[in-house]
Amino acid sequence: MRVWRTISDRSRSPTALTIGNFDGVHRGHQAMLARLKDRARALGLRACVLTFEPHPLELFAPQTAPTRLTSLREKLELLAAHGVECVQVSRFNRAYASRSPQDFIEQVLLAGLGMRWLLIGDDFRFGARRAGDFALLREASGKLGFDLEAMPTVEQEGVRVSSSAVRVALAAGRLAEAEALLGRPYSISGRVVHGDKLGRRIGFPTANVQLRHNRPPLSGIFAVRTLDGEGHTRYGAASLGLRPTVDDSGLAKLEVHLFDFAGELYGQHLRVDFLHKIRDEERFADLDALKARIARDCEIAKELLAAKERA
Q1: For the chain, what is the mean pLDDT?
Q2: Spatial CA neighbour of 270 closest among 19, 73, 112, 90
Q3: CA angle 36, 42, 44 (to 5 degrees)
Q4: How far apart are CA 253 and CA 141, in angstroms?
Q5: How far apart are CA 274 and CA 296, in angstroms?
Q6: pLDDT in tens, 157-171
Q7: Between the CA atoms of 189, 192, 196 and 201, what dihedral angle is there, to the nearest 10 degrees?
Q8: Pairing of strands 207-209, 187-193
Q9: By CB neighbour count within 10 A (0-12 exposed, 13-18 middle, 19+ buried), where does 195 fall?
Q10: Burial class (CB in 10 A: 0-12, 13-18, 19+), 135
């Protein structure tokens, strides 16, 4: 998959295009990507996605911007897995946001990305003051010679599939609901880095996975599955959160204790799939109480994982 970070000043090869943040690449996004690929194939065009970094709300309302479901790297990996041929990652800043809708259509979509066919969500808005919408695009399509299609809402068991719905499910610990909306278990991936080695000292060594953002959409203790950079799948128990017993930094950490594993993973890229929530974070009186609870968490995680295998 090709990733572009600058808009070309001359048209690239013609594209079928869709636009959005694609945070989480959930089932609604996947339906859009499937439609994009179908039309690109039928029209002989490249299947292309235009996305933004950072999320527009992180620029205009950073205190209330939604928690990210995926880092940019994770999003690009998911888009590639769903057959996207090229992604334009546009730096979203105030200058970009101030473009008029007409300039966005003519200079970015047509001249820069070679758009010939466009698919957008039913609530898509664009341009300065969010003045652009489907009606404006429909008018422009007739004048400027591109085809336009709107993607209807996708529902899962009566619930509108959206990044917001996934965040709500994850925050409540409803991992099965989040998995149904995503079409896969929720995961976080990152490089394994050195930590404070506390887990090793108390008998539960952990892989410390670097978080790209300090506000993960879920917290607690979980039964997990991991996939490392060499393709090995392993199972374990993970802590994601602020570690209230031993840390007052206010920084979230993801620590994974892998069962029946004694090797080193430092420097590797590790994906952590969250399969079951065991409990919320707790503050314990001392390390002995914490150690006893971790041992019990690992027992519960093994039971949950074994039950999932039998199902």
Answers
A1: 92
A2: 73
A3: 95
A4: 48
A5: 18
A6: 888 999 999 999 999
A7: 100
A8: antiparallel
A9: middle
A10: exposed
217 secondary structure, DSSP code: S
Mapping DSSP onto H, E and C, the string for 51-120 reads EEECCHHHHHCCCCCCCCCCCHHHHHHHHHHCCCCEEEEEECCHHHHCCCHHHHHHHHHHHHCCEEEEEE
Query: How does pLDDT run across 108-138, given as a tens digit for each residue?
Result: 999 999 999 999 987 889 988 889 999 999 9
Is 2-159 in CATH node 3.40.50.620? yes
Pick the closest to residue 56 from 14, 29, 26, 20 (CA basis): 20
Classify domain 186-310 by CATH number: 2.40.30.30
Q: What is the DSSP code (8-state) at residue 206? A: -
Look up residue 21 and give its two tokens: 């943040």
* Domain chopping of the chain, boundaries: 2-159, 186-310
Q: What is the rounded distance in angstroms from the CA atom of residue 97 to the CA atom of residue 126?
A: 8
The enclosing H or E element of 310 equals: helix 287-310
Q: What pTM was computed for the model? A: 0.92
